[in-house]
Design a protein that fits this description.
single chain, 280 residues, mainly beta, five-stranded mixed β-sheet, four-stranded antiparallel β-sheet, 0% helix
């Protein structure tokens, strides 16, 4: 059996003999010979989850092929979420309103990593707001598990903590659930026990060349913290006076001192401040 959807090529052959099996089927985008999508869009690629089971009831001797979307997005926030295949730009983005779910398929483009970009919008925002979104974050959604990130609302300094929960459903289908975390449940917390204000952000790297979320932690205060970009070994940039240090928040044994100049003075260095960063 071969399958085809609007805008795609025919799939590879699918066997219906082994009941109880499941898997992923890729339908590449049609190149000249594919049928046109119903909405007039360009040729498309699809990722489908397949399952071969025995039919229920009196038809139990028959085999049944179940075809589902490989990836479905679900918005459990109280605000709209914009989403797009990272690297494709806002013109291909779509809007997911509170409580809505929608299938998601990766674009068929060689060299384009399968990463998802999301943007949180104000309540009541429409699709026109997607043109103002910052699509620089890139999230992997191919592995089961939960990611906790910090996001900034478009054109505002307001930050929210976002949970991205990737769940495996029946067969090979996956559900990606977006929900909001309270600041009290952020994955990290920075306590400033020194007499100097701190500036904290995720350290710049190849995937995050310019951090968008920079927080000030005043003396005798604390701030919830989360990464804004998923990378293999993220670090925190800790600014104390005119000094900057990179801190690994996942090293529970990490402690030390940072000698720094007091920004309130014009010359002599301030007494070294002991700075301890501990994950919650």
């Amino acid at each position: 059996l071969e399958l085809r959807l609007p805008g795609s090529c025919w799939s590879s052959a699918v066997s219906l003999e082994a009941a109880g099996t499941s898997g992923l089927l890729e339908l590449p985008a049609g190149r000249g010979g594919g049928s046109a999508p119903s909405d007039g869009g360009p040729p498309r690629a699809y990722q489908l989850a397949l399952g071969v089971t025995s039919a229920p009831g009196e038809s139990c001797r028959s085999k049944m092929l179940v075809v589902e979307h490989r990836t479905t997005l679900l918005n459990r926030l109280d605000r709209p979420v914009g989403y797009v295949h990272h690297g494709k730009g806002g013109h291909t983005a779509a809007l997911l309103r509170p409580g809505e779910r929608a299938p998601f398929h990766w674009q068929d483009e060689p060299g384009l990593a399968r990463l998802l970009s999301v943007c949180l919008l104000d309540a009541g925002a429409d699709a026109a707001s997607l043109a103002e979104c910052d699509w620089s974050n890139a999230l992997p959604i191919d592995s089961v598990g939960e990611l906790n990130l910090v996001c900034r609302l478009s054109n505002r300094r307001t930050v929210l903590f976002l949970s991205v929960d990737v769940q495996l459903l029946s067969g090979a289908s996956m559900l990606v659930v977006f929900s909001e975390r309270t600041a009290e449940l952020a994955p990290y917390r920075v306590d400033n026990l020194s007499a100097l204000p701190l500036l904290i952000s995720q350290s710049p790297c190849a995937a995050l060349q310019q951090p968008r979320v920079v927080q000030e932690v005043l003396p005798a205060s604390r701030a919830p913290f989360a990464w804004e970009q998923v990378v293999a070994a993220p670090t925190l940039d800790l600014h104390v006076g005119r000094s900057v240090r990179k801190v690994c928040l996942d090293d529970l044994q990490r402690s030390g001192t940072i000698p720094c100049a007091d920004p309130r003075a014009s010359g002599a260095p301030h007494e070294p401040s002991s700075v301890i960063a501990a994950p919650r």
